Description:
47% of the residues lie in helices and 14% in strands.
Amino acid sequence: MKVLTVVGARPQFIKAAAVSRAIKNDFCSSLNEVMVHTGQHFDDNMSKIFFDELDIPTPQYNLEISGGSHGLMTGRMLESIEKVILNEKPDYLLVYGDTNSTLAGALAAAKLHIPVAHIEAGLRSFNMRMPEEINRILTDRISSLLFCPTEIAVENLSNEGVSVGVYNSGDVMFDVAIYYKQQAKQQSKILQTLNLSNGNYILATCHRAENTDDISRLENILKALSKIATNISVVLPMHPRTKKLIDSYGLSHLLASLIVTEPLAFLDMIALEQSAKMICTDSGGVQKEAFFYQVPCITMRDETEWVETVNLGWNKLTGANDEKILEAFKSYGEAIPQTVSEFPYGHGNASQQIINQILKQEA
């Protein structure tokens, strides 16, 4: 059975590493994976380093499509992926998450009657202003196999009338977190490089369009991080697009008290996450990794797809309100959760469950 995997962005590379490794290690598997990199994240810090570090198979196709509006990017990807599908004639097309690459791959396959397997299906923020929400809803509607990371994701699909082909596989990111946890501790030198010590800094990330495209939201986030930095070091690996917008808005002065770095290698990021006192982020993946590593998290968004982390007390939603961010920071200082009491993201074997289910379709 041939599976065509479409990836394009940094979080997808990480998830694909887990599934591709499981395919490679399953000697009884008849799966043949062909990987397509759309080029959505194209520079070395956002792309090549992940393929090298995570030992992801070199993509047989690199479409080199990046930049432009959502419609332009998705349309160009759709056209190019269609050509790859016609050339490769896969039995399944595999997509991850909620990016433009995800939607383009799913649409191209569905129009050519190739069944789509969607990993991370069923997630909902219920905010239709987010391009990610549109991408994930549309992808779910045209997928034949929907691999949900949690029971809540399964319920979301059920509420939309989708129940056929739906599986709670667990979260492939939990597979990744377990696999690389010790490796990051042993191999990464990022704490020494930045002169940090365990539990003595805050890790922050900010890249979502809802925050970066709104000058007032971005300014409030940076103000909050600057105030936090008067009490404890704040490390901010900077997304290239965020850096460009900060400069254009004239907000660079708010970075003066922060430790700003280039985008980090995966193992360096995992090492920083594990050893942080707290994490402030607008990233879906980072807030979840904080939960996996039992690090308190402040999510600088108005909603989250990963509601389990909030329900279990490890994540606080603040939006881009600097006062709420500071209030959450203070409240964690007074009462930090002691241990993770529930494991809603599976048992670290999601990748194998996904492979097994795809192979069942061949039988």
